[in-house]
From TrEMBL:
SUPFAM superfamilies, sorted: PLP-dependent transferases
Gene Ontology terms for molecular function: kynurenine-oxoglutarate transaminase activity; pyridoxal phosphate binding
Protein name: kynurenine--oxoglutarate transaminase
Keyword Transferase: yes
EC number: 2.6.1.7
Enzyme type, top EC level: transferase
Amino acid sequence: STPLQEAVARGFELELSRLGTPECYFESLAKELEAKRDYMEAFLLDVGMIPTVPEGGYFMMADWTPLESKVNLNAETDKYKDYKFTKWMTKNVKLQGIPPSAFYSEPNKSLGETFVRYCFIKKDENLQEAAKILKTWKEAQSKL
């Protein structure tokens, strides 16, 4: 085995010996991510999106179509609505999402159009800033 393989194996052996303890990286990471995921779910719900809460991973998909009447996608020239929405949000609200249709084959891209993908393995202050950006935008929408 290579030195890198040996190092990875030793790291896994160490973490396996820590399973079930607070020192275990895998368990501490899962708890940290669960809190971040739940926080993101709450602020996406608050703005009116419908999040799909993952049981693992670092990303959350959210149905953005409840906001469709509050965004003007006419100026965006992309073929798929998720691209239009993420570009519009980036330009106008200053919050970047990922268009999930980017991960679909051409015949299936329309399956992802009603969703946006957000990453929640971020510093807490970055997630708080995202929540603030969306809250400010929501409040501005209610005044229109």
